[in-house]
Structures are given as structure tokens and as C-alpha cells.
Amino acid sequence: MRFVLCWALVWMLVMGGIFLPGNGWAQFFFLENPLVGEAAADFTLKTLDGKTVNMTQFRDDKSAIIFFWATWCPYCRAALKELNNEKDQIEEKGIKIILVDLGETESEVGRYIKANKIDLTVFLDEESFLNDPYAIIGVPTFVLVNSQGIVKAVEHALPPNYEEILVAKKDPVAMDDFPFQNKN
User: Fold this and answer.
1) I want to staple 48 with a disulfide (CB 3.0 to 4.6 A). Which of 81, 89, 122, 173 is the partner?
2) Residues 16-42: pLDDT tens digits?
3) Distance between CA atoms of 83 and 106, rounded to whole angstroms?
């Protein structure tokens, strides 16, 4: 009997550890980020130029690419260079680029931005407060938000069809897609 109780306790601990509350874990089990289709969490952070800026106001009712990154991440550095090079083309399409550095100090980020001649507004999340509301499980993370403020995709590389994703009227999985649905 003790053996069964011990295994039951171990099973409950393992399952409790796997199914911890939080959006990041859901990605592993449902294969789609739970933020897709939901309103993007609003935030107000200090920017590298010393201003306190609200994301929704900065986005100004435009679609946005929110890029969560860190200077130590080689994939982030490559993606940041690409975003910086394509900044004008992206903005001409009416899409804002929102860079959010996670977990680093203003001086660390400032040195990197200056040395690499990055010409984009950088939001500083020194305490990584946005990890949970944006289900960040690693960097780089791209969150595509449409002009209505709805998360359309969460990816670890910028999808080549990001513009199509942002303007899509239909959610990725709509009830109309299921054949068993009653259409009365």
C-alpha cells in the first residue's frame, strides 16, 4: 500500500510540475501559443533614450512586431540587424517595430545599440516583467500584433509572411473549419 501511495505522490508532483500555471508551458502541450487570438498585454517601460513609453500609445493603432531579445543572444543579434536594415520598408507598410530587451541593464543595452548603429526605439525590461504576460520561454521571440491589438502569431524567427499574418481577417483556427459543426 505504501508503494502505491508513494508512486501516486510522485505522479502528482511530476504532473503538477508539468502543468504549472503560466502561458509559456502551454506552448509545449498545445503546440500553439495561448496568446494567439488574445489582446496583446499592454505595458509601459522606460526606453533607452530615457522616456517612459506605453506600448499601445507607441503602436498608435498600427500593426506591430514586438521583438523580445537580449544582447548576449546570437540569434537575436542577427534578427536585430535584419530588422534595423529593413526598418524603412517595414514602417512604410504601416507596421511598428517594438524592441524589448529582457533582463539587461540600460548601460549594457546602450553600449550594444551604439556599437551596432541600431536606429530603433528600445524598451528596457530590466526585471523581465513581460516574460509571463507574453509567455516568453526564450529569445528571440517575435509577437505579431494586428492594428486592433490582437496577437496574430508568436514565433522565434520573423516569418517571411509577417505582413499577411498581420492583415489576416480570419483567426488561424476558426470554428467554420470544423466539418462536424452544425451550420443551422
Assistant:
1) 122
2) 544 444 444 444 445 678 999 999 999
3) 20
The pTM score is 0.77
For residue 176, is it within any domain? no
Assign residue 103 a region: left if phi > 0, alpha if psi is -120 to 50, beta otherwise? left
**Residues 153-179: what's their mean pLDDT?**
75
Cβ atoms < 10 Å from Cβ of 54:
11
Residue 164, H or E segment: helix 162-167
* DSSP string for 29-77: HHSS-TTTTSBPPP-EEEETTS-EEEHHHHHTTSEEEEEEE-TT-HHHH
What residues contact 47, with CB distance under 8 A and at least 6 apart? 53, 121, 122, 123, 124
Domain count, the chain: 1
Question: Tens digits of per-residue pLDDT, 68-100?
Answer: 999 999 999 999 999 999 999 999 999 999 999
In the predicted model, what is the mean pLDDT of the chain? Answer: 85
Does residue 18 lie in a domain region?
A: no
Picking from 174, 172, 161, 169, the residue whose alpha carbon sits closest to that of residue 65 is 161
Segments forming the whole domain that contains residue 163:
29-169
- Domain assignment present for 178: no
* CATH number of the CATH domain containing 107: 3.40.30.10
